Amino acid sequence: MVKVRFAPSPTGYLHIGGARTALFNWMYAKAQNGKFVLRIEDTDRQRSDQKFVDEILDSMKWLGLTWDELYFQSERFGIYREYAQRLIKEDKAFAEGDAVILRMPQQEIKLYDLIRGEIVFDTATIKDQVLIKSDGSPSYSFACVVDDALMEISCVIRGEDHISNTPKQLIIYQSLGFHPPKFAHLPLIMGEEGRLSKRTGAVAVSDYRQEGFLPQALVNYLMLLGWSPGNNQEVVDLDSAVKKFSIKKVNKAAAIFSMDKLEWLNSQYLKKMNTDDLVNLLKPGLQEKGCLLEQIDGQRLRTIVDLYKGRMTTLKDFWGWTDFLFEDSLRIDANIRQKHLAHDLRKEFKLLSERLANTQPFDSSSTEKIFRDLVAELGLKSSDLVHPVRVALTGKEVGPGLFDTISILGKEKTVQRLNEAFG
RNA sequence: GACCCCAUCGUCUAGCCUGGUCAGGACACAAGCUUUUCAAGCUUGCAGCGCGGGUUCAAAUCCCGCUGGGGUCGCCA
Q1: How far apart are alpha carbons A351 and A247 in whole angstroms?
Q2: How far apart are CA A258 and CA A270, in angstroms?
């Protein structure tokens, strides 16, 4: 029976590195029809916090990394103490005050890592290990070993930063008379300036969610860090990745996190996404911006989303780009006004607004015809009028095609804004 | 410092195990096409086996050394 676990400590948010570890564990389990255990390592009561537990569980669900079993180490202190007592009785450990310390035997110890092959350690350089601390709580390594054994974890997949913990834990397995599981140590994810940090960008999974990334895109990006589905594939959904996943094909070298590529993947998923689903994802943000969703026609909202879908990098883009559609009055930045509305186009705008006011139906092809005819009559280049009009209507220098924009803005606001453009 | 891990374009990677394919793809970057703008899209381009020794007819691929990067040395996890 294949069974793996992801064991975060609720002393902080679920970060990108942890999410990748969880993902690889999850893929490993699913690929072999095994189980995935989520174990919250909350033995440090001072630093653990319920809000982090909630955030971790929430992020895991958001990513789609569901678990089969959930444990909290804080509920298992009795078990750890029991095994520690046993080691004292067998003289493999000794008490020091209320603490229990493991006697480190002097020996060579071999680790067969699924990714790295054999790694040999000499325990001569490792000192005696604390099993139970003076306050009665278990040390990380001890709780970890007891739990992995009792929960029948078949393979421990964790970050490379744990390699040096492994010989200590192997000694604990040996002392306890437990069979050790297999091990696989994943390469680390690093930031552009070395260690992955807040300076490089967001580190918490929830930050990416907040920034408008899709969980599918984040998961896709994370799986590409240290692993490849082959066939030159880059955009791969979780299900097909699971079918191809092999822990032995995981890279040994650390990878540097690239926001550029994550953004590219996110835009790819956004483009492919069903419009109705995207509308639903966008709604909460619109509401936050004070938009009254009840007053917006559903079909109109779908049209708007369709228009912007292909150009978005994150969900956040949409909210910033479409504010002009949902607000009554338009504020135009002084610099942008200076750049595009410096010439007095009062006359041209008036003609345009009068003709548009009489246009029926008010769609992009009919407004385009009106516009082009007028431009020809006035002997202008279309760009002479396109850019000022866009700014007057949207307050922005860039955006989708002007006639699509006019069409979704609607006759009333278009006419009004053209008339008010020059005060 | 000690111990351990690692090393293909700027970045993520395929290829390495089972030596012999112009070292393939993606992001980024550049150019062109398209175009009312910016994106998107399409096309093209730029760019890599860290260094030095071996082994071999032949090395990105196997071996050794060096250099460089990373990790760990807590009664944190």
Answers
A1: 68
A2: 19
From 1.20.1080.10, 1.10.3720.10, 1.10.150.170, 1.10.10.350, which CATH number describes the A334-420 domain?
1.10.10.350
The ipTM is: 0.96
Query: Could you tell me if A36 and A68 are in contact, meaning their C-beta atoms sit under 8 angstroms apart?
Result: yes
Q: How far apart are CA A85 and CA A67, in angstroms?
A: 32
Q: How many CB atoms lie within 10 A of CB A329?
A: 8
Distance CA A140, CA A285 (A): 41
Nucleotides in B strand less than 7 A from protein CB? 2-8, 10-15, 24-28, 36-41, 69-77
Token readout for A307 is 């228009």
Q: Name which CATH class applies to A275-321.
A: mainly alpha
- Please list the helix, strand and coil fractions of chain A in percent, rounded to the nearest 5, in that order: 55, 15, 35
Backbone angles phi, psi at A227, to 5 degrees: -155, 155
Per-residue pLDDT at A161 = 96
Model's pTM, two decimal places? 0.96
Contacts of A88 (CB under 8 A, 6+ apart): A94, A95, A100
pLDDT digits (tens, 9 = 90+) for A186-236: 999 998 776 776 666 669 999 999 999 999 999 999 999 999 999 999 999
Å separating the CA of residue A353 from the C1' of nucleotide B33: 35
Nearest to A421 by CA among A394, A382, A400: A394
Thinking of the domain A76-186, which architecture would CATH place it in? 3-Layer(aba) Sandwich (3.40)
A313: confidence class by pLDDT, cuts 50, 70, 90: very high
Closest CA to A186 of A119, A245, A250, A244: A250
Report the C-alpha gap between A22 and A1 in whole angstroms: 19
Q: Which pLDDT tens digit goes with each residue over A336-371?
A: 999 999 989 999 999 999 999 999 899 999 999 999
Angle of CA points A301, A304, A307, to nearest 5°: 150
Nucleotide nearest to A267 (CA to C1'): B40
Q: Which nucleotide is nearest to A161 (CA to C1')?
A: B71
